Structures are given as structure tokens and as C-alpha cells.
Amino acid sequence: MNTWIEEFKTAVKNVEELESILGTKISKTNYPLFIPKNFLNKIIAKGSNSALWKQFIPDISENLEFGSLDPIGDQKFQVTKNLIHRYPNRALFLPTTTCPIICRYCFRKNELYDNQTFKQNLDETLTYLTAHPEIEEIIFTGGDPLILSNEKIENYFEAFSKIPTIKYIRFHSRTPVILPSRIDNGLIEVLNKFKKNFKQIVLMIHINHCDEIDHDLIQAIQLLRSNQIMIFSQTVLLKDVNDHAETLSNLFHELGNHGVIPYYLHHPDEAAGTKHFYLSLESGRKIYHQLRKSLPGWLIPTYIYDVPGGHGKVPAFNPENTHFSGEVISLSGEMIKLKSPEV
Ligand SMILES: *Cc1c(COP(=O)(O)O)cnc(C)c1O
Ligand code: SF4
């Protein structure tokens, strides 16, 4: 069996097992637990005050009342069982609800992990894509799409190759960080077999802190880059994890050093169970503003905010003023007044 599948199958899944490995008490929360052991060793090595620990070890604050169950409201743009079509030219494809780890700050934490697998109805999705030639990009997300087997990924590529209007394939994934051995030769073969059918295959690695970068990840990145996969990163701004300009600047420098371009810095979504990770837009703007001092422009990601209620993503940065007026501009150009006074 592949090492990454073995690692996935033997992950720590309950508090008792985690307590016995860590030798310390762990809070019981309303949310499940899932940490592959190899990655758990990396967390342990960084210690209980580290950014890794805070992101993945359950905390009692998850039980605090906060936010909403579907903070970004993208469910209303669901057009088939596994397709979300909000922006005209690109669509999210959700082939799985499974992830390589459970991130305690996850904005989908109230929708995932109910053990439902998406009902596969690829025909319905292909029919929709054929009827909507304006969709030129398929964004594999989830869950985490790199948890799918090479055979499944190959089948999806085969299917999307038959729709001539699909130019770009994109993956949003945390797997390279958590299970770097997932970037195996079989995956590279599938990517190489299909890359001529698309203009570009792009990978967005979800990564939040320098401590997540190690030799294993760098090797995975090098393997992908040497096979012409474009790699960008997405980072979620999280209180007490990376909410300092210096922390972010270190992360973005290090990514740049390995050929990964920082793409988005996400303001956290107000998802139930994530209160202890939340910070205001004004605090975020102050941090973001400082990045320009220490980073070249090409290593500064766009700071964005997903407007609750399904309004989509908007730039979160205001270069003139860190104060937030409470209004954002929608895709169609209207001003939307936000309900939440906190943002
Ligand atoms: C974020 C997102 C995308 C991708 O948007 P980009 O700005 O191209 O990264 C597409 N569809 C939905 C519904 C999204 O939330
Ligand atoms: S990998 Fe992504 S979707 Fe999965 S738990 Fe982490 S943040 Fe959520």
C-alpha cells in the first residue's frame, strides 16, 4: 500500500488515543478529531504553544457560541450535487468531503465530517458544464481533493477533457502539507498524461505558518514544479496562529524561496466553533498594511474577505484607512451593508 494511504488509515481519531500519545488532557469538543500520526509527531516537536498545536489539537473554546453554520453562504449556488457555480467563468467541484486532517478553524466545520459521501452524479455535472460554456475553470475542492486516489483523479480528468470549454484545472488542497508523500509518482503520471488537454493545471496549497514547511513538503513542491504544475498558496489569517506581520512575512518569503507564489490571505469566516481564531477586519488590515515593508510585491497575497450571505469574495484591504465602514461592494456593483458589527 502507498505510504500516504497507510498514514491516512492509521490516523488518530479520538481524544483518548490523542491523550495517551500526548500524555496530557485534551478538551472534549462538539467536533471530531483526525490527525495522521506522522504529522502529529511534527506537531509534538513544535510544542503546545506552537501554531501547529493551535491549528489541529482540539480546544475547549470550540464550544463557545459564535457565528453561523454556513458562514459564506455558497450553498445557494449549488447547481448539481457536487458543483458550486457562483462566478460566471469558474466553478467549484466538490468530489469528496474527506480531508487529510481536521483543522480546528475550518470554515466548513459544521458541514463536513458527517460521513456523508457526495453522491457521485458526474453525468449531471458534465451536462451542466456542457450547457455552460462560459465555465472555463474547474476548481477541485472539498473536503480535500488530493485525498482521492490517482485512479479517481484520472477518471475526472478524462471526463473534463471531453468538454472543450474547460481550459484550467485547479486544486485547492491542504494535503501537500499534511501528507507530503501523497505527491507520489502515480499522481505525477496522471498530471503529465492530462496536462496537454488543459491550458494549465494549478495547485493552491493551503498553508498558514512557516512551521508547516519542512523537507518533505519542499520535496513534494519540487517534484510538482519540475513537472510544470503552477503552485500558489492560500493562507487563513488566524488569531494566535499567524496574526503578526513578521510571522506572515516569514511564511511568504519561505514560500517564495521554494517557488510558491502567495495568492490569497483569507480573513477568517465567522463559522460556529471558531471564535478563538477570529479577529476583526481592522486588526487584519493593520497587519496586512505592514507586509509591504518587508516583502517584495510579488510575495504579497491579496487580502480577501468572503462576504456572508453568498455575496462572494471582496478585497479586504483599504490602503487609506484601517477603519471598516461596514459596507462592501458586491459583484454586481451594489453596496451591501453587513449585519455583523464585529467585522
Ligand atoms: C473562491 C471561489 C472561487 C475561486 O475564486 P478565485 O478568486 O478565482 O480564486 C470560485 N467559486 C467559488 C464559489 C469560490 O468561493
Ligand atoms: S483541510 Fe480545509 S476543508 Fe479540510 S478541515 Fe482543513 S480547512 Fe477544512
Task: Please outline the helices and strands.
Layout: H1 3-9, H2 15-22, H3 37-46, H4 51-56, E1 78-80, E2 83-87, E3 90-93, H5 122-131, E4 137-140, H6 150-161, E5 168-173, H7 175-178, H8 185-194, E6 200-206, H9 215-225, E7 230-236, H10 245-257, E8 261-266, H11 281-294, E9 302-307, E10 312-315, E11 327-329, E12 335-337
Parallel strand pairs: 3-4, 4-5, 5-6, 6-7, 7-8, 8-9
Antiparallel strand pairs: 1-2, 2-3, 9-10, 11-12
The structure holds pyridoxal-5'-phosphate and iron/sulfur cluster.
Report mean pLDDT, rounded to a whole number.
94
Give the SSE order as H and E letters: HHHHEEEHEHEHHEHEHEHEEEE
Largest sheet: 10 strands, mixed
> Termini separation (Å)?
47 Å
Structural class: alpha/beta
User: In DSSP terms, counting alpha (H) and pi (I) runs of 4 or more, how many helices?
Assistant: 11
List bound small molecules. Answer: pyridoxal-5'-phosphate, iron/sulfur cluster
- Beta-strand residue percentage: 15-25%
Widest β-sheet, arrangement of strands: 1-2-3-4-5-6-7-8-9-10
Low-confidence stretches: none
The overall strand count is 12
Helix content: 25-40%
